[in-house]
Amino acid sequence: MADTKDTVVEGVEALTLNGKAEAEPVETGTDAQAQEGGAAAGAAVEDVVDPWNVASSNDTGVDYDKLIKRFGSSKIDDELIARFEKITGKPAHHLIRRGMFFSHRDLHTILTLKEQGKPFYLYTGRGPSSGSLHVGHLIPFTLTKWLQETFDVPLVIQLTDDEKTLWKDLKVEDAIKLARENAKDIVAMGFDVKKTFIFNNLEFMGKCPAMYQNIIRIQKCVTFNQVKGIFGFGDSDIIGKIGFPAAQAAPAISSTFPFLFGNKKVHCLIPCAIDQDPYFRMTRDVAPRLGFPKCALIHSTFFPALQGAKTKMSASDQNSAVFLTDTPKQIKNKINKYAFSGGRTTVEEHRQLGGVPEIDVSYQLLKFFLQDDAKLEEVRVAYRKGEMLTGEIKKLAVETLTPIVEQHQAARKLITEEVLDKYFELRPLKFAS
């Protein structure tokens, strides 16, 4: 299915920092303000969504329906889920069923390739800014692993240590070390080494000239004005930032990996959070001009910070997130102390009016990690009716999250440098050609 709302200006989809086409009128206010005559209070601040910032003025977080319209992507609807299940012969993952992965570009194309028995590969990544992932980082990798197993396809995972060196003022050597540490967290999730290749940009480009060659080809297709419009770069930004988007785009071009695909022009599916979409809107415009298919994408919502859905969990704020290195006691303390509540001020008021699960972070954690649909619905109804208290839903969140973190920690202890090196080794992967 072709994208219906891509706007092309000078050969690149015309985008501002937040993904809005230049010709599109700016939205002001919120639906609630309009209904309540909130004009006197002034226009509300619009959701900010770009590769480096996520912020909303609403307790329920980003308005994803508006974001789909703004970015020009397509909603994952019941019809698409039904086709997905028919073609794969498996129930859709709970992250898809529950709308945590809610948007896509050309997912129908990938399903058609599957029907026809034609190959494609998966590409996802991580920007290593801290020594440990937090639980929010597990979400795209969880679905990626499921997609890899469901479709039996190869996977490339990019660690953008170059990006973090540029944006976080990290030393090159420190960024490389963080990439290795983050890779151990990723490998501990159980990816098949026979079908998974992991690389960090600061080292891979010296081993595989094809990647740098594709970066140059992509950079030749995008002007400075265009990259400013897409990413919001200014005159005072260092030149490394301006050139970086091509490095994230290159893995979506199959010739970047000649040891995997040779000269074949293979389609690519990218699971990612929707804040990464600007990179791949640029990529989708450039790829056909280089003779390659447009990458397809499947977008996730943002994993809320413990303090509420107005922003996402951050690796740079210890108290905003549950990290994969946290102890059971730390997990319990963080959720009890920091997890934003949708409950009422008093027990009496809560029993009478019920809670608001849509803004309750503990409930949102359960939406991501509690796999039992019936149990989740039981919790939602009980909380909304006031039958379940804030303390009880936090307790359930702790009980759900703690074993996941503990199991991951046990698996990570088994990831030696030798095991990790096997994933980084340039080699053919096993997949249907």
Automatic annotation (TrEMBL):
Q: Which organism is it from?
A: Drosophila madeirensis (Fruit fly)
Q: What is the recorded name of this protein? A: Tryptophan--tRNA ligase, cytoplasmic
Region annotation Disordered: where it falls in the sequence: 19-40
Q: Which InterPro entries match?
A: aa-tRNA-synth_I_CS, aa-tRNA-synth_Ic, Rossmann-like_a/b/a_fold, Trp-tRNA-ligase
What domain of life does the native source organism fall in? Eukaryota
Q: Where in the cell is it found?
A: Cytoplasm
**PANTHER family assigned to the protein according to its UniProt record, in alphabetical order:** TRYPTOPHAN--TRNA LIGASE, CYTOPLASMIC, TRYPTOPHANYL-TRNA SYNTHETASE
- One GO biological process from the UniProt record? tryptophanyl-tRNA aminoacylation
Tell me the first and last residues of the signal peptide.
none
